[in-house]
Structure formats: C-alpha cells, structure tokens
Amino acid sequence: xxxxxxxxxxxxxxDLELREIQVPTPAAHEVLVRVRxxxxxxxxxxxxxGQPYVLRLMGAGLRKPKNPVPGTDVAGVVESVGxxxxxxxxxxxxxxxxxxxxxxxxxxxxxxxxxxxxxxLVLKPAAVTFEQAAAVPTSALIALMNLRDxxxxxxxxxxxxxxxxxxxxxxAVQLAKAFGAEVAAVDCTEKLELLHxxxxxxxxxxxxxxxxxxxxxxxxxxxxxxxHSFTQCQRVLTPEGIWVLVAHDNYGKGRHRCLGAIPRMLAxxxxxxxxxxxxxxxxxxPDRQKALxxxxxxxxxxxxxxxxxxxxxxxxxxxxxxxxxxxxARGKIVITMD
Length: 338
Ligand SMILES: NC(=O)c1ccc[n+]([C@@H]2O[C@H](COP(=O)([O-])OP(=O)(O)OC[C@H]3O[C@@H](n4cnc5c(N)ncnc54)[C@H](OP(=O)(O)O)[C@@H]3O)[C@@H](O)[C@H]2O)c1
Prior knowledge:
Quinone Oxidoreductase, Chain A, domain 1; binds NADP nicotinamide-adenine-dinucleotide phosphate; 338 residues; globular; 2 domains; alpha/beta; 10 helices; 5-stranded parallel β-sheet; Rossmann fold; 28% helix; 7-stranded mixed β-sheet
C-alpha cells in the first residue's frame, strides 16, 4: 500500500484527500517510480475541476476523473521496470511525464509511487535536485514546443514572452536565452525581479505598460495569458514575425467553461492559412525523448534552472492547488514526499 492524493469527483481542492491505496504495477513498457517530487501546474487544475467541460469527453473521464490520482510531472528513483523496458533499471534517478502526449488526464504522480511510460522518462542529472527536476517536464516541454516548433526561434531574434513569471513563462525566458534570442519579458510588478534573474534583457510591467502600444518590434511573441488579440499583437510584430498563443483559462475566470480556448484556437488555425504571422496548425507532437534530452542538457549546463516558488508536502496538495489558483506563484510549485 502507499499514500496518495485521490479525487472521486470533479470539484475543487476540497475534493482532494490523502488516502492509502494499492501501489500500481508497471505494464511491459512502464517503469514504477518511487516519487521524490512532483509538480503542480495549470493542467492539474483543469482535470481536478473538469474544466473546460470538453476535456471530460477528451479522455479525462465523463462523470469523474478516470484516474483518481492527480499529478503528471515526476522525479524519483526507479523501483522496478516492466519486462519490455530496456533503458532503466532499479535505482536509477529519473524525471519526466507520467502521461502520454498532450493528454488532459490525471497522471498519478501525487503519490508515493507512480508508473510512467519508459519513453516519458530520462535520467536525472546528478547536480539537479529531485525538486528542480520535477518542476521541468510539462512546463518546459510546452515552452520548448511553442518557441522552437511553432515560433521557429533563431539566435539574434527579438522575442517577447507575455506571462513570463509563471510556470511556462519562467522556462520560456531561459530557453529563449539559450537559443540566443534577445528577450523582453512581461508580467506584473511583483514578478519583475524574477524576470531579471531569469536572464530577460528587458522587462515590461503589464500593470503600467501595454506592450502592444510600445515602440519595440518583435520577431516572435509567445503569449501565455492571451489577453490581447492577434490584431493588437500584430502591431508590434516585424513583417515576418510570429505570434504563438498558449492561452490561459485563468483558473476558471475565463469565460469559456464548455470549450475553453478551443474556439479561439480554431479561428486562429483558419486565419493562419492567410498570414505568415501565425504558426500553421499541426497535431504532430515533437519527439518527447529528444525534447527531454535537450532539456537535460540545458539543466546540466545551467542554461535552465527551474525557479521554485514554494514546495508543499504530499498531504498539502490541496493547499498547493489553492496557491496555484491565486496566480501569484513565481515560477513553479513543487510537491515533495518528505
Ligand atoms: N497550448 C499548449 O500546448 C498547452 C499545453 C498544456 C497547457 N497549456 C496551458 O498553458 C498555460 C500555462 O500557463 P502557466 O502554467 O505558465 O500558468 P501560470 O503559472 O499561472 O502563469 C501565468 C502567468 O501569466 C501572468 N499574467 C496574468 N495576466 C497577465 C497579463 N494580463 N499580462 C501578462 N501576464 C499576465 C501571471 O501573472 P499574475 O497573475 O501574477 O499577474 C502568471 O505569471 C495554462 O493555461 C495551461 O493550461 C497549454
């Protein structure tokens, strides 16, 4: 048996409980990981609340979460491996994602043990702590995919990151610097110091300055909150510049409870057929193993250092989720097993 956070209906942080449940058994291509740290992020909030409602049809579970244990990002020690696993053995320190692709489901990481597909994990560099490693996967993979694959980032470009002080943004600033870009980072007053520390060349306080009305011109805008229209952002894009929208539901404060950002994304996909300033739609995901290997390399060279806002012990996952929902976290929130 093991301790785990479980949820038996869609709801709020109040619906998450610490329970004793069975340790999962790894399938042939899976690894059983003794969890040392896991991370809290916006996608966990989506599945705990079941919002937008469409995600319930997209595999999360119709009436309640299919998997009762939340958490998708893990760092820990391999306990045992399925019979087809070739890359890991018991005792290896690993980190990665417990879910496949871009699924919106609970991944089981808020527990003492979790199973993960072999191709979702990589070896953890010795100099990186379990807490730091657990902070990386989902947020850095989203940042990497949007900057490199959709935004086609190149050295010497001027890149603006809107919402740069949050989970995805704090990774994106460092990745953009690692790609050799000049980075302008936008967030609220309290997060500007962090943006400087992450390596941003310019910081913009959105409470006093609207970047879409400024004099700066950018080759790439990575927009996490998506609080401006494409037309407004176009004003500050170079003619060949690209606007990549991640879109944030603002923890339920967004207006689209049924479909979330999907209608806006679909409209942009159509518009992308007529302008080079929007990325072409693709449902092909980057190779996760290669992407995690690149992130590992950046962690080893110190070009990527996750900024951890706060850590919470497993029993305090509900408090961690409430903290996430305030939107005040600087960088990442991490769950520890101590
Ligand atoms: N498209 C994809 O591939 C994909 C995949 C998975 C997840 N996601 C989504 O990506 C988003 C990730 O966000 P995250 O994890 O980085 O969230 P986060 O940690 O909450 O960060 C969002 C940041 O945006 C800032 N912000 C809020 N309003 C702003 C404004 N008007 N101007 C500039 N900055 C503003 C917030 O700061 P303050 O609130 O303190 O002002 C915060 O620092 C989530 O919605 C998640 O569901 C996307």
